[in-house]
Automatic annotation (TrEMBL):
GO cellular component: 6-phosphofructokinase complex
Known function: Catalyzes the phosphorylation of D-fructose 6-phosphate to fructose 1,6-bisphosphate by ATP, the first committing step of glycolysis.
UniProt-listed Enzyme Commission number(s): 2.7.1.11
A GO term for molecular function: ATP binding
Cofactor (UniProt): Mg(2+)
Limits of the Phosphofructokinase domain: 1-262
Keywords: ATP-binding, Cytoplasm, Glycolysis, Kinase, Magnesium, Metal-binding, Nucleotide-binding, Transferase
InterPro entries: ATP_PFK, ATP_PFK_prok-type, Phosphofructokinase_dom, PKF_sf
Single GO biological process annotation from the record: canonical glycolysis
Pathway stated in the Swiss-Prot or TrEMBL entry: Carbohydrate degradation; glycolysis; D-glyceraldehyde 3-phosphate and glycerone phosphate from D-glucose: step 3/4
Protein name: 6-phosphofructokinase
Catalytic activity: beta-D-fructose 6-phosphate + ATP = beta-D-fructose 1,6-bisphosphate + ADP + H(+)
Organism domain of life: Bacteria
Length: 309
C-alpha cells in the first residue's frame, strides 16, 4: 500500500498537482485528517510494509449521512480527486463517494486476491512469499521429527492464498472454503505417505475451510498413536513485512494509472491488472462481486499435492 501511495503522489507531482494524504482511511476522511505531502516525505515508503497512513474502521462512514459528510470534508479541504487503495469494502466506499460527486479512482489491495476485475491485488504476492517461507521452514521441522504439520493461512472465503502457497511450497494437501474435504481422507493420505517412506506431511488450510485447521489437527492426533500433528497459524505475519519486487512494481503501475484516469476525467474506475495490461474497470461492476478461485489451480494443486477425491 505504501508503494501505491508513493506512486500516486509521484505521478500527481508530475502533473503539477498538490497532494494530500488521508490518515486512518475513511475515519480520517470524515474527520478531515489530511496530511500535505511532498516528494521528500515519501522517502523510503516503497520498501515499507503495512500502511504508513494507518487504517481505521468507521461506523459513521457506513451510513449514507456519513458518506455525504465525507464528501463535504474533502471539498472543504480543496480535494478535487481521491485515490482509494483497499479491498472490497474500501472500493465500495469509493463507489459511494464517486456517486456523490467526488471523483474517485480505486486500486485493489488485499492479500486474499478476491477483488473482482483484476488478476492480482497489491499485497497478494508478498503474502504468498511469506506463506511459502513458513511452509519451507515447517517442512524442515516435520522431516526432522517425523510429524504432520497443519499450516493455517488467511482466506476466510477464498482459498487462493492456500492453493498457491501449497503449490509453491510443495504441500501434501490443501483445504479451502470452496471445496470440502473429509478429515479421514487426509489421515488416509498421511498413512500412505508414511508407508511410502516420506519423512514429512504438510497440509495447508485456509482459515475458512471445512474442516478447520484446528479440527483437522485434532482428527489426525486422534487417529492413532502412530500419528501426531502440530498446528501453525501464519496469522498476521502474512500481512506484514517489506513488499516483494512484484508488488512494488504492480503498485507503481496501478498508482500511475489511477492518476491518469483522474486526469482524463475518467473517475469511478478501479485500476485492474488483466493479463499484463492495466485496465479501467467501472467500480459498479466489481463492488459486491468476488473474484472466484480458479478451479484449474485447485485441480493442479490436487494433481501435484494428491488432494483426496
Amino acid at each position: 500500500m505504501n508503494a501505491a501511495v508513493r506512486a500516486v503522489a509521484q505521478a500527481a507531482f508530475g502533473k503539477g498537482w498538490e497532494v494530500a494524504a488521508v490518515e486512518s482511511g475513511y475515519a480520517g476522511l470524515l474527520e478531515g485528517r489530511f496530511r500535505s505531502v511532498d516528494s521528500g516525505a515519501l522517502s523510503g515508503w516503497m520498501s515499507r510494509g503495512g500502511t504508513m497512513l494507518g487504517t481505521e474502521r468507521s461506523d459513521d462512514f457506513a451510513t449514507d449521512e456519513g458518506k455525504s459528510r465525507a464528501v463535504e470534508a474533502a471539498r472543504e479541504a480543496g480535494v478535487e480527486g481521491l485515490v482509494v487503495v483497499g479491498g472490497g469494502g474500501s472500493l465500495a466506499g469509493a463507489l459511494a463517494l464517486d456517486e456523490r460527486g467526488l471523483p474517485v479512482a480505486g486500486i485493489p489491495a488485499t492479500i486474499d486476491n478476491d477483488v473482482a476485475g483484476t488478476d492480482m491485488s497489491i499485497g497478494v504476492d508478498t503474502a504468498l512469499n511469506t506463506a511459502v517461507g513458513i511452509i519451507d521452514r515447517i517442512r524442515d521441522t516435520a522431516s526432522s521429527h517425523h510429524r504432520a504439520h497443519v499450516v493455517e493461512v488467511f482466506g476466510r472465503d477464498n482459498g487462493y492464498l492456500a492453493v498457491m502457497s501449497a503449490l509453491a511450497g510443495g504441500a501434501d494437501a490443501v483445504l479451502t472454503p470452496e471445496f470440502e474435504t473429509k478429515p479421514e481422507d487426509i489421515v488416509r493420505l498421511l498413512e500412505e505417505s508414511y508407508e511410502g517412506g516420506k519423512p514429512h506431511f504438510v497440509v495447508v488450510v485456509s482459515e475458512g475451510a471445512s474442516p478447520t485447521a484446528d479440527e483437522l489437527c485434532g482428527h489426525i492426533n486422534d487417529a492413532g498413536e502412530s500419528y501426531a500433528a502440530d498446528l501453525t497459524a501464519a496469522g498476521h505475519i502474512q500481512s506484514g513485512g517489506g513488499p516483494t519486487a512484484f508488488d512494488r512494481i504492480l503498485a507503481g503501475r496501478l498508482g500511475a494509472a489511477a492518476v491518469k484516469a483522474l486526469a482524463d476525467g475518467d473517475a469511478g474506475k478501479m485500476m485492474g491488472l488483466q493479463g499484463n495490461v492495466i485496465e479501467r474497470v467501472p467500480l459498479e461492476e466489481i463492488v459486491g462481486e468476488d473474484r472466484p478461485l480458479d478451479p484449474g489451480l485447485y485441480e493442479l494443486a490436487g494433481e501435484l499435492a494428491r488432494i483426496p477425491r
